[in-house]
């Protein structure tokens, strides 16, 4: 069991690395491929990678009697709105993120995107799904706001517009995760993932074809970037995460996946020559602390589920 947990933790670390490096790829792609085309192609590729595994997994569970539905359950009227909404939230989040990363660094994008873990309990409270968050969550929110200010402005009275767009994307990520938590209790995870990726990819590519000229040339000229983001980041990354989380405890998952932002910063430094001033590094550290505090109930092994409604 200990060996399985070690391998699961290493798989999660690889996922964090893949997703951290993805911010570097997105930063490079932002100058080469227009945002909607980039997002459309990468998520359609990711959906195609996941779909065979989703079909195999569903068939095995049906045959073993674990569930009595199959891939067609996602197209039923009961769950189709959830899949569509998840795809639209995802499309909105990646659009703001990809447009924003053009005006900021991979380091900033990685840390600011992770702030969704702080926003989730606050949004759940505002929506009446939880009582007032524990004091540590409010402390995490204040720390994250301070860290965001230091990271984005370097202590100056100005905020980078790219960082603002990335922050907007974090809002969509938070709503997306809340919806996913509700959906995966009712549908099979891999099927749901492929469904929402198809919706995101089709919506994004449709907007790209309408709003962005030269689609085919952009895709052909940057196929390697798109392949990494679609096949490796979306397809392989999600699959590894799903497999590893069956073994790894929630505390391991919360801590290890938080290092995604650190890998984004390291990748930006190694591959793009990005550097952070001392105050910005302090901001990164404060944001990471806020992210971990927001997940402290999971990390400390509290029985109450992170998304569980209270009262």
Describe this entry's structure for a reader.
This protein has 311 residues and is an all-alpha fold. It has one domain. Helix 1 runs parallel beside helix 11. The chain is globular.
Question: Biggest β-sheet: count, sense, barrel?
Answer: none
Helix count, per DSSP? 14
| Content-based structural category | mainly alpha
User: Which stretches of 5+ consecutive residues score pLDDT under 50?
Assistant: 303-311
Number of domains: 1
Could you tell me the strand content as a percent range?
A: under 5%
Mean pLDDT: 83
Task: Using the alpha-carbon principal axes, give the shape.
Answer: globular
Give a nutshell description of this structure.
The protein is mostly helical and 311 residues long.
Q: What labels would you give this structure?
A:
14 helices, globular, mainly alpha, 76% helix
């Amino acid at each position: 069991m200990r060996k399985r947990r070690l391998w699961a933790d290493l798989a999660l670390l690889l996922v964090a690395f893949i997703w951290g490096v993805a911010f570097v790829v997105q930063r490079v792609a932002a100058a080469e491929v227009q945002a909607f085309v980039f997002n459309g192609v990468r998520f359609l590729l990711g959906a195609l990678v996941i779909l065979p595994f989703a079909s195999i997994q569903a068939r095995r569970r049906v045959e073993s009697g674990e569930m009595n539905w199959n891939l067609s359950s996602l197209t039923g009227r009961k769950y189709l709105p959830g899949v569509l909404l998840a795809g639209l939230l995802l499309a909105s989040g990646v659009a703001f993120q990809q447009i924003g990363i053009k005006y900021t660094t991979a380091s900033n994008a990685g840390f600011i995107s992770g702030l969704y873990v702080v926003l989730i309990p606050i949004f759940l409270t505002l929506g009446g799904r939880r009582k007032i968050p524990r004091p540590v969550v409010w402390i995490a929110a204040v720390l994250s706001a301070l860290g965001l200010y230091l990271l984005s402005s370097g202590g100056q009275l100005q905020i980078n517009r790219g960082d603002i767009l990335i922050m907007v994307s974090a809002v969509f990520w938070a709503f997306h995760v809340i919806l996913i938590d509700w959906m995966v209790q009712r549908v099979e995870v891999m099927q749901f993932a492929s469904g929402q990726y198809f919706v995101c990819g089709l919506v994004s590519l449709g907007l790209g074809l309408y709003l962005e000229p030269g689609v085919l040339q952009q895709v052909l000229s940057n196929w390697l970037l798109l392949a990494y983001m679609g096949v490796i980041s979306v397809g392989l990354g999600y699959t590894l995460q799903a497999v590893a989380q069956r073994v790894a405890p929630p505390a391991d998952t919360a801590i290890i996946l938080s290092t995604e932002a650190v890998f984004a910063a390291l990748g930006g430094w190694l591959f793009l020559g990005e550097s952070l001033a001392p105050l910005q590094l302090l901001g990164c550290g404060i944001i990471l602390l806020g992210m971990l505090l927001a997940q402290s109930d999971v990390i400390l092994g509290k029985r109450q589920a992170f998304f569980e409604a209270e009262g």
